[in-house]
């Protein structure tokens, strides 16, 4: 808006060195206007308007916060109380959405075996709605503290709701697709600095499920090869898919042990060996 551009030009904070910025009170005008007027307004919108289940709303809000925080250049010794209030409100709103909007019913196996049944369709809709919320929560990575994003996305959403549904989904393309979608939601940055060959603590149970899937797929594939093609080596693309998911989340030791156990030396390249 014109008044904002006028204040920005007056402050011209982007062209002032950091050492001079601390001594020039003119540079405080724009950050203080943002602090006193804009951030409280956004906080009110977050509290009463924003729907964390809406991807378009969440992307717009994340972009808005990034743009505003880039303008709000503070001196070394300053902290933004309004910014903290906004981030706390974002976390509380997402937590409320996890607690109130996520519901994935667990039906008897016989009830959901028929994929066209109302129960099966409802369960699937609720699962994918929760996955959508997971992807929206993770959009805040880099703005909201990482431990809070991981707590909401992994400890609460994945381990309490999504994983139970995944465990109850028969092993096959559908269950693998669900696991792939979960992994695709997670920021690569979370796994770049893992040096132990182990994944994040919040993903241990998920990785154990992937490992069990890999064992079962390899066993079934191996049995089929012996029965029908005893003279051929039969490679399972599904097994490799599952192992790649483990690699993406940093569970390299699990993959390495699996390769050694089943003597799959041709797959060592996926762990850089």
UniProtKB/TrEMBL annotation:
Domain GCF C-terminal span(s) in chain numbering: 1-161
Q: Cite the entry's keywords alphabetically.
A: Nucleus
Please cite one Gene Ontology biological process associated with this protein: mRNA splicing, via spliceosome
Please name the InterPro entries in this protein's record: GCFC2-like, GCFC_dom
Q: Does the keyword Nucleus apply?
A: yes
Keyword Nucleus attached = yes
Q: How is this protein annotated for GO cellular component?
A: nucleus
The cellular location(s) given in this protein's UniProt record come to:
Nucleus
Q: Which GO terms describe its molecular function?
A: DNA binding
Top-rank taxon, per record:
Eukaryota
One matching Pfam family: GCFC
The record's family statement is: Belongs to the GCF family.
What protein name does the entry list? GCFC2 factor
């Amino acid at each position: 808006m014109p008044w904002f551009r006028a204040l920005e030009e007056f402050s011209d904070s982007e062209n002032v060195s950091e050492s001079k910025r601390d001594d020039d009170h003119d540079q405080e005008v724009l950050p203080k206007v943002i602090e006193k007027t804009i951030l409280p307004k956004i906080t009110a919108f977050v509290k009463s308007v924003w729907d964390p289940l809406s991807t378009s709303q969440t992307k717009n809000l994340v972009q808005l916060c990034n743009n505003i925080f880039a303008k709000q250049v503070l001196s070394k010794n300053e902290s933004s109380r309004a910014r903290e209030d906004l981030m706390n409100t974002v976390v509380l709103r997402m937590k409320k959405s996890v607690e109130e909007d996520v519901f994935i019913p667990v039906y008897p196996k016989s009830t959901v075996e028929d994929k066209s049944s109302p129960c099966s369709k409802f369960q699937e809709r609720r699962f994918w709605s929760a996955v959508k919320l997971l992807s929206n929560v993770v959009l805040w990575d880099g703005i909201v503290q990482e431990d809070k994003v991981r707590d909401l996305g992994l400890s609460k959403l994945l381990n309490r709701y999504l994983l139970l549904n995944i465990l109850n989904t028969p092993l096959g393309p559908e269950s693998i697709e669900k696991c792939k979608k979960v992994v695709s939601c997670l920021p690569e940055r979370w796994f770049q600095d893992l040096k132990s060959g182990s994944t994040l603590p919040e993903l241990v149970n998920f990785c154990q499920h992937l490992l069990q899937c890999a064992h079962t797929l390899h066993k079934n594939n191996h049995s089929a090869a012996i029965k029908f093609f005893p003279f051929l080596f039969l490679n399972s693309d599904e097994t490799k898919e599952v192992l790649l998911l483990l690699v993406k989340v940093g569970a390299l030791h699990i993959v390495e042990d699996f390769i050694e156990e089943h003597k799959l030396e041709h797959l060592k390249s996926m762990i850089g060996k």
